[in-house]
Amino acid sequence: MRILIIGGTKFIGPFVVRQLVEQGHEVTIFHRGQTQANLPGAVQYIYGDRKQLHNFKSQFKNIAPQIVLDMMPYAEQESRAVVQTFKGLAKRVVAISSQDVYRAYERARRTNPGSLDPLPLTETSPLREKLYPYRDQAESPDDWIYHYEKILVERVYMSEPELLGTVLRLPLVYGPGDYQHRLFPYLKRMDDGRAFILLEEGQAKWRWPRGYVENVAAAIVLAITSQRATNQIYNVGEEESFTEAEWVEHINRAAKWNGKIVTVKREQLPKHLIIDLDWNQHLVVDTSRIRQELGYQEPIGFEEAIARSVEWERKNPPAPIDPKQFDYHAEDAALLRLHN
Fold first, then answer.
1. What CATH superfamily is the domain 2-339?
2. pLDDT in tens, 32-71
3. At what angle do helices 244-255 and 302-315 cross, to 10 degrees?
4. Is the dihedral of CA 312, 318, 319, 320 positive or negative?
């Protein structure tokens, strides 16, 4: 199968590319060339900015891709450009979306108060009622996050009869290459020999979906190579959504830490540890559809996934490290007040 990937060199993308090449598919990557990855020699490249996607249509015709994988569709206009470029050229687009499309997500973020949404979240659960969830964080209308909206991306890709679509709603993804370093705040405290880790009571019990990068890549590859995925939307993630306290305990075992988790009320937390979420709205997601329809199973077991993630994080800490995130004096003081 001939597959064109828009993006594909950062975090999840290289794992997808390697798995596709191992299966014998012809892979071409379209990207800006700003991020390099260790990829198989058989991979072909077209260098360019997706904002000028239409300028490369003749090169795309030479490749004649059967499937286009859009790894980074953030905005409606970007998705429309992909449709206009590949309509009549490719058969299908597989688009990477996010589970932030669900209304439960804005309930948790307190951006649209209302009754708690029922769980687990399925592919037909209510979507957010307010668009552009991160616009208030944008520095200007030129900032990409100003236009970020996966709901509109999904609508574009699932509504074009001449270019069929598949959408994958991803969870929090962790593992080697994670440029957001999701394990690091906990792991650093463990490696620094901290005797305890503070969690707000609600956060300690809060459940939300995660996925190890190689396993998420395997789900993406299945969606690309399975005809049954046409015109379908799939949740991707681990079968069990662990609480935050359970997640820390899993990291603890892999890191061989000897400390303990201490749960406290929000008003007892140091300011740098307070996260303004409604912990009553869990984000447990049902992933049974992709498992039943496409036969998806995680190729890497959970304990091995955590061990690999801890090993990578230790070798690749973020730079620079924000010392304000690790105000141990304030954390010790909070624990002392709790004991007193």
1. NAD(P)-binding Rossmann-like Domain (3.40.50.720)
2. 988 888 999 999 999 999 999 999 999 999 999 999 999 9
3. 70
4. negative
